[in-house]
Amino acid sequence: MGESSKQLVGSWTQAIGTVVAAIGSTPSLPIHENGRRGLGLIGNVLQATGNGLEADAETTLTYGKLGNIIQATGNIMVSAGLIIDFSGDTEERLVISGDLIQALGAITALGSADKSYIVIGNGLQALGNSLQAVGGARELKEEERTVIGLSQVSNEVLIALGSWTQALGTILLAIGLTLEEKN
User: Fold this and answer.
1) Which terminus of the chain has a smaller tally of CB atoms within 10 A, N or C?
2) What's residue 173's pLDDT?
3) Selection from 84, 33, 53, 47 nearest residue 163 by Cα
4) How far apart are CA 8 and CA 57, in angstroms?
5) What are the tens digits of pLDDT across the range 27-58?
6) 108 — alpha (psi -120 to 50), left (phi > 0) or beta?
7) Residues 6+ away with beta carbon under 8 Å from 159
8) What does the alpha-carbon distance between residue 48 and residue 29 come to, in Å, rounded to a whole number?
9) Which domain of life is it from (predicted)?
């Protein structure tokens, strides 16, 4: 597979992964909790795979390559948090940390941005991952303070909004790359 084909396949794999994860995080959809976790896991594995393909397609170390490596690392952390049965709040902390690392990767990739779709796409990914991390952190704090009895619905919505914002960013990047390859 050529480098440009690998990058194109990687960007679409990542985009599909973000959509799968976003579907799993949408509270209004009638999906059982195990189904949500499964969709989140599948989505993050696809994202890590896509980021890995994109990083591998770049032959020199650039901010874009480094950003993809960092994002893949964040996806692996989220996946570990979803698949391994840790005690206490370790799972949620891994997911939050993974989201923040993904945001850092998207911001790092901006260092190589030379097209508007790259700037906007990575900016949306960073924003989306940050919203997910904030929602997860708020949810974690409420679990620790159950005496207060605050509703977690707003946190679930914040996480879903972040997931769909991230998905929009990856789709924009994949479309931009596809159109660029056609020219």
Assistant:
1) C
2) 97
3) 47
4) 9
5) 999 999 999 999 999 999 999 999 999 999 99
6) alpha
7) 25, 131, 132, 135, 136, 139
8) 25
9) Bacteria
d(CA 124, CA 166): 6
Can you give the three-state secondary structure of the chain, one letter per residue? CCHHHHHHHHHHHHHHHHHHHHHHHCCCCCCCHHHHHHHHHHHHHHHHHHHHHHHHHCCCCCHHHHHHHHHHHHHHHHHHHHHCCCCCCHHHHHHHHHHHHHHHHHHHHHHHCCCHHHHHHHHHHHHHHHHHHHHHHHHHHHHHCCCCCCCCHHHHHHHHHHHHHHHHHHHHHHHHHHHHHHC
- Nearest CA to 78 among 26, 14, 133? 133
pLDDT of residue 147: 40
The model's pTM is: 0.93
Contact 158, 139 (CB under 8 A): no
Q: How far apart are CA 180 and CA 160, in angstroms?
A: 30
- Find out whether 19 and 11 touch, Cβ atoms under 8 Å: no
The total number of residues shown for the chain amounts to 183
- The amino acid present at 60, given as its one-letter code, is T
CA angle 139, 140, 146 (to 5 degrees): 85
